[in-house]
Every structure is written in C-alpha cells, then in structure tokens.
Amino acid sequence: MSVTPIRLFGDPVLRTPAAPVVDFDAELRQLVADLTETMFEAGGAGLAAPQLGVGLRVFTWFVDGEVGHLVNPDVTPAGEETEEAPEGCLSIPGFRFDCRRHLHVAATGWNMHGEPVRIEGSHLLARAVQHETDHLDGVLFVDRLDDGARAAALAEIQQAEWAGMGAYTPVVKVSPH
Ligand SMILES: [Zn+2]
Fold first, then answer.
1. What's the angle, vertex CA 27, arms to CA 24 and CA 28, rounded to 5?
2. 63: helix, coil or strand?
3. Strands, E, within 26-158: which ranges?
4. Tens digits of per-residue pLDDT, 6-64?
5. Which residues pair with 75 in a beta bridge?
6. The pLDDT value given to residue 89
7. Is 121 exposed, middle or buried (0-12, 13-18, 19+ CB in 10 A)?
8. Which of 21, 120, 144, 146 registers the highest number of CB atoms within 10 A of its CB?
C-alpha cells in the first residue's frame, strides 16, 4: 500500500466522470489499498479514485470506526428526509461549508473481489456515500450549495494557499516528542 498524492480542486480529473470497473483484478485491489491508506493518512471520512487521478468508479469510506469500499456504486435515497450539515473534501482542504444531503441512503455495488455489496447508512455515512459517489460523476460538494453560498464558497477557495498547486501528499503529523 502507498500513500498517493490527492488531486486538488481545479484538476480536470475531478471534473471527469469515472468509468465503471470491469476487471476485478490485483490492480483494483491495489487501488482500494491506496485509497484506504491515503484516506487514513489524510484523516478523511471518504476518498474516491478520481481524487488520486484514477478514473474508475471506486471509493472508500471511514465512518464511526468502520472502513469500507464500494465499486460501481448505485445509490438510492431512503425516504424524503434531508439534513444540512458542514461538509468538507480532501480535494478542497481547509474548507467546510453547509451542504444539504439525503439523511438516509441505500447503496449497492461490489467489493474488490467482485462480490455484491449492499450498505445502508444515515447521517455521516449517508453523507460520505453521496459525496464520494458525486466524485465519480465529476461533481464536487460545492456544486450542491445554493447559488449564493456557492459563489461565496468559490471566492474563498480561489484564495486558498494551495490554489493552483495540483496535488498534495498527506503526511502524518508527528509530535515533536
Ligand atoms: Zn471530496
């Protein structure tokens, strides 16, 4: 496994719809491993393959102590309830904006061994699943904000110290002792 640089807002790969996985092979298992390790290192609740520059429909999540991954996901809202809460993105580091999401979702797909998987989640897991699935369609969470909030968010992001950098490698913060 290896920690892989995370692509930043502005990189075209984040705006490119990802292709379905066809081969459930060693390369896919390596991708899941890289996603998982990079997500842990960056302290994220989820990470999608396009964020590592890979145009495949795969993401990982880490919510409430549970780690998982989903290949070729198909996400359906469960019920009408929505929730607005602060959301962030490892490709837009340092920013959080209130974003409205479905409160409950069900998702089907496959694991890296090609076995069918179904997950149901609420709150943060539901939010992570929606956020990461958006990444696979080239959609970023700031796109989901209301017009005014989105314009304000984009203006803030333009001023980010990392704007135009392209990518960064997450590193563990080691205590000086
Ligand atoms: Zn994200």
1. 45
2. strand
3. 46-48, 58-63, 66-77, 82-87, 97-102, 104-110, 116-122
4. 999 999 999 999 999 999 999 999 999 999 999 999 999 999 999 999 999 999 999 99
5. 107
6. 98
7. buried
8. 21
Tell me 141's DSSP state.
G
Cite the active site residues: 132
Q: Give the pLDDT confidence of 122-173 residue by residue, as tens digits.
A: 999 999 999 999 999 999 999 999 999 999 999 999 999 999 898 999 986 5
Instruction: Determine the Cα–Cα distance for residues 6 and 95; give it in Å rounded to an integer.
Output: 15
- Two structure tokens written together for 143: 């796109």
Non-local CB neighbours of 98 within 8 Å, separated by 6+ positions: 84, 85, 86, 87, 145, 149
- Domains within the chain, CATH numbers bracketed: 12-162 (3.90.45.10)
159 CA → ligand 1 middle, Å: 19
Closest CA to 132 of 76, 49, 16, 41: 49
pLDDT digits (tens, 9 = 90+) for 49-89: 999 999 999 999 999 999 999 999 999 999 999 999 999 99
* Cα 47 to ligand 1 centroid, rounded to whole Å: 6
- The Å distance, Cα 25 to ligand 1 centre, comes to 25
